[in-house]
Write a sequence for this structure.
């Protein structure tokens, strides 16, 4: 569990070490809560800890998890991305346009969708850096633009991938022989692994943390802050594109009107996973654990027949508890 | 191709109605076409598009000008109130309204009454005595029909789960209660599981369906109360690999039509959205001419499954 975090870069000496330790503790905390919740539900219902149910939980984590991993980059850099939800719907629609309407081969259609997602991120990045819009505003605007464009481009009706059965295999098929373990989960795992390595072991990752901790100081030390910020938003955009592919492949259709609200769940996952909304601190692993906590809670509360109205109440309390624990520790350190 | 063509048609339709609207306001003298402002609950969903199409066709036939608008999602009560206020400002001869929240629009309805603008409610009743009539599906009866078909498919015994799109909207409540009431009264052998709500979101409903199946491995049937819920149920059943679970849906749409044709869904109840739209226009015309209207105009519903899906009468009411 510690491997990717261990190599948080040799930032500005002490600061870096503190960040590293804090990040680790928070991850342990989040991971411990996840285990506690899983143990609790295993005792509460005999139907929780079964192969098929665990697969369901993992599968239900995929879309929010993918968006949250992308958003982690932006949030660590001190920004925010509210456009991930509707951006995902727009990318799903574009996957439909590329593959169904234009008849591109699936691999090329998927590639184009990822690039299109990157384009969405690029626009966000340009608006944040060159137009100097606050990230909240720039991505709020993109959230609306993407919602509208998804409807305009699709003519307000879903685009179906029927006949391209190969496309739905991206999410629902299984490359593990003899099982029905969904590919989407593996794709998220690989994507998260790559994201973790990028954030922790590359120059890009180091600059992302650095910009998030102190943007001015980073700029003064001769780093082109604008360029790296744009790259961060583009990375988030590629994950938006990936989420668009995964959700449309799961449903066998691109639904233009579904994404609104997903951004808040993704941000919740990032925050529960210990990433600081003020930037400079956080990890991909934490985010994945945060997303898992949300989907385990949803699934477990449904399985134990907790009235649905209460499920969101409990989720809200978990977010408060997670962030409070994080800040309490920050004060003492 | 199809969505694109539809988009083009829509664009033309909108342009026409926009231009018509301005003509109606300026050149009252020679045209004298009555103008009906229709405020719906939404416009993105296939269902509302079909209502709109029905209204536009009827309007063309009867020589009426209409505008059709609705908020982006069915929770935007305030946006709908603004739309209603704006459309009353355009001096319509009649208003068609599918209210998201009856109380929120009550003051505006009073204004309409003061100005002698007749109001026709549609889709769900407006809790007020100002609308002259309501053109809507009897959701309770329709859900009861879904329950009947479910019970028949299960030979009157087994466990049935329900994924419903809303615990607060009129259609959600009626489609839940219509289904449960019929089961309780007529199918003592059917055990109904606690109702789960998925907000009509396909992915969320699929995940909910899988947790229902996980906690009730012996489940026999699942009912989804609207297009998104029903498609989510079908998806959840497919992903859990329990193909023998009988699924019954509500509404129409290409996804459900495919699922029924491929045998992944037993059947579904469809409303007649085109007729709802047409009835709004014709009722509004009657109201403008001062004719009497019945309290409720029942626009009907149909059960469709693999056997009758290709009959012309069913094809007419399916929207996709």
């Amino acid at each position: 569990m510690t491997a990717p975090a261990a190599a948080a870069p040799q930032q500005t000496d002490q600061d870096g070490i503190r960040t590293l330790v804090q990040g680790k503790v928070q991850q342990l905390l989040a991971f411990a809560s996840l285990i506690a919740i899983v143990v609790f539900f295993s005792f509460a219902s005999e139907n929780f800890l079964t192969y098929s149910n665990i697969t369901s939980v993992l599968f239900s984590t995929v879309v929010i998890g993918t968006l949250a991993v992308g958003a982690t980059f932006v949030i660590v850099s001190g920004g925010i991305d509210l456009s991930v939800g509707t951006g995902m719907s727009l990318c799903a629609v574009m996957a439909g346009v590329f593959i169904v309407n234009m008849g591109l081969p699936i691999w090329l259609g998927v590639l184009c969708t990822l690039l299109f997602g990157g384009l969405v991120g690029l626009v966000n990045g340009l608006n944040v850096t060159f137009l100097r819009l606050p990230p909240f505003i720039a991505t709020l605007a993109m959230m609306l633009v993407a919602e509208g464009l998804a409807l305009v481009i699709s003519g307000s009706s879903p685009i179906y991938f029927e006949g391209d059965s190969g496309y739905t295999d991206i999410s629902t098929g299984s490359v593990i022989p003899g099982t029905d373990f969904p590919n989407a989960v593996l794709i998220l795992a690989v994507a998260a692994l790559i994201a973790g390595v990028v954030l922790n072991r590359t120059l890009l990752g180091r600059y992302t943390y650095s910009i998030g901790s102190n943007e001015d100081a980073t700029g003064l030390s001769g780093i082109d802050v604008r360029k790296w910020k744009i790259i961060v938003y583009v990375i988030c955009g590629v994950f938006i594109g990936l989420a668009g592919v995964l959700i449309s492949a799961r449903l066998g259709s691109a639904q233009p009107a579904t994404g609104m609200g997903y951004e808040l769940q993704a941000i919740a996952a990032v925050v529960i996973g210990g990433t600081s909304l003020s930037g400079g601190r956080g990890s991909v692993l934490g985010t994945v654990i945060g997303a898992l906590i949300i989907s385990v809670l949803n699934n477990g509360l449904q399985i134990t027949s907790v009235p649905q109205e209460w499920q969101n109440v409990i989720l809200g309390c978990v977010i408060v508890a997670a962030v409070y624990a994080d800040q309490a520790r920050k004060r003492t350190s | 191709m199809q969505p694109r063509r539809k988009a083009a048609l829509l664009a033309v339709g909108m342009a026409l109605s926009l231009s018509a609207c301005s003509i109606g306001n300026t050149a009252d003298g020679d045209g004298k076409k009555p103008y009906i402002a229709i405020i719906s609950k939404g416009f993105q969903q296939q269902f509302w598009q079909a209502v709109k199409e029905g209204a536009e066709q009827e309007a063309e036939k009867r020589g009426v000008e209409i505008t059709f608008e609705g908020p982006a999602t069915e929770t935007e009560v305030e946006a709908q109130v603004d739309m209603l206020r704006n459309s009353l400002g355009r001096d319509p001869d009649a208003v068609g309204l599918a209210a998201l929240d009856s109380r929120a629009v009550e003051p505006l309805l009073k204004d309409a009454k003061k100005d002698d603008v007749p109001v026709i409610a549609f889709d769900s009743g407006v809790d007020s005595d100002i609308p002259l009539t309501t053109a809507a599906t009897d959701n309770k009866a329709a859900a009861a029909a879904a329950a009947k078909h479910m019970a028949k498919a299960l030979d009157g015994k087994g466990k049935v789960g329900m994924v419903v799109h809303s615990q607060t909207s009129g259609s959600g409540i009626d489609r839940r209660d219509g289904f449960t009431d019929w089961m309780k009264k007529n199918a003592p052998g059917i055990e109904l599981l606690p109702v789960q709500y998925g907000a009509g979101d396909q992915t969320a409903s699929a995940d909910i369906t899988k947790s229902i199946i996980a906690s009730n491995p012996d489940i026999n049937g699942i009912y989804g109360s609207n297009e998104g819920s029903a498609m989510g149920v079908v998806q959840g059943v497919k992903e859990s690999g329990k193909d023998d679970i009988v699924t019954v849906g509500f509404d129409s749409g290409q996804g459900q039509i495919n699922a029924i044709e491929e045998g992944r869904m037993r059947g579904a109840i469809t409303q007649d959205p085109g007729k709802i739209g047409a009835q709004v226009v014709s009722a509004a015309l009657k109201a403008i001419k001062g004719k009497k209207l019945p309290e409720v105009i029942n626009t009907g519903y149909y059960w469709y499954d693999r056997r009758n899906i290709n009959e012309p009468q069913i094809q007419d009411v399916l929207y996709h």
The CA atoms of residues 38 and 96 of chain B lie 4 Å apart. Chain B touches chain A through 44 residues (CB under 8 Å). The radius of gyration of chain B is 21 Å.
